[in-house]
Amino acid sequence: MDQVPLRRVLSLALPALLVLAAEPLYLLVDTAVVGRLGAVPLAALAVGGVVLAQVSTQLTFLSYGTTARAARLHGAGRREDVVAEGVQATWLALLLGAGLVLVGQVFAGPVARLLAGEGAVADSAVSWLRIALFGAPLILVTMSGNGWMRGVQETARPMRYVLFGNALSAVICPVFVHGLGGFDGWGLEGSAIANVLAQAISAVLFLRALAVERVPLRPHWRGMLAQLGLGRDLVLRSLAFQACFVSAAAVAARTSAATAAAHQVVLQLWTFLALVLDSLAIAAQSLVGAELGAGRAERAKALARQMIRYGLVFGIALGVMFAALSGVLPGVFTPDAGVLAEVPHAWWFFVALQPVAGVVFALDGVLLGAGDAAFLRTATLLSAALGFLPLVWASMVFGWGLLGIWTGLSAFMVLRLAAVLWRAGSGRWAVVGAVRD
């Protein structure tokens, strides 16, 4: 059976890569800028950043779920229905985002103190988080816009929207934090303001893209409820990720400011590279969904095999590259000697996991494109419960620090790898039709 040409895969993956990389890359810049303020602001950014990231991650069904539904409709030739999915996903984004802003202002303090304990780190994290939460509706609108556009295999336009906002914000972030000329800067809070500005610019562009389409823009509760049905499994899956990474941040913060700051540096690099590898998953999701929507199950299975190979090769390449940068790159993010001494305890886990991550994320994209969210939910919850969480919390009890935290992440990834390889080989995910029941 003919394979999908590599050029076609890359035409979808490369623009998606820039979209996926834009936010983590901005956060890496943010980490480097804030790191110059010292260990406490950097640790506070670690705590506040993981809370905001997990809030948005919890609602990734607005992107991935919308793509799964839209790609099948696209494969069946129903463009207008695809855009209608985007309209209802955007209404959901605005409603859920507004609720997050209100709830977040109330619970920012208790959550930050729960993660970091009482003290300067928690206080600074609250100040950052209260501002950054105003970007929640904007983040979710961007997710929904990416979702329906990926469904019609259009990734270049979302790339331009996201990069424009983040590039402008990255330029002004150092000014907002450290000042320029007679302006003294706003310190840690300045990074939150720059972050919200980037999200606002991108969200407005996605809203405009919907406004020019010839479809009704009214909210329809039935359509939103249908999306929430698929979103249920993705939300539960996201809860597993949330529990893992929030727990890791909490244990690191309670160990020491240097441990929390080192974890922030390596975690941001992990997040960045995970999304780099996930660009292949975006291509797989769009292509697999379209093939199944058009009734071509065997071509969808062939795509799955291609994505395994591509993910493994790219993962190995990234692992080799960051192994070579181990003596140089951490110093870009902070000059603090205590933080730099902690970084190697996580660094080599991060390097070794890249090939595993390449295969896992590629197959996640295949299964999400097939709408196989229920399996991914169960596999992720079990991997978190059996692998990550026991080792993370044991690290706090026994004082294992970053070694224990990143051993837990390794167990989590290996268990997920076994699960998705088994599922892909079974072929039971390849259900054809414009809509998967």
UniProtKB/TrEMBL annotation:
Q: Which Pfam families match?
A: MatE
Out of the domains of life, which is the source? Answer: Bacteria
- List the transmembrane segments: 37-61, 82-108, 128-149, 161-180, 192-213, 234-253, 265-289, 310-333, 345-367, 374-394, 400-422
Membrane disposition: Multi-pass membrane protein
Enumerate the UniProt keywords alphabetically: Cell membrane, Membrane, Transmembrane, Transmembrane helix, Transport
Write down the CDD domains for this protein, in alphabetical order: MATE_DinF_like (cd13136)
GO MF annotation list: antiporter activity; xenobiotic transmembrane transporter activity
What InterPro entries does this protein map onto? DinF-like, MATE_fam, MdtK-like
Instruction: State where the protein is found.
Output: Cell membrane
| Family listed | Belongs to the multi antimicrobial extrusion (MATE) (TC 2.A.66.1) family.
Query: Mind telling me which NCBIfam families this protein's record contains?
Result: matE
Its name, as the record gives it, is Putative MATE family efflux protein
The organism of origin for this protein:
Crossiella cryophila
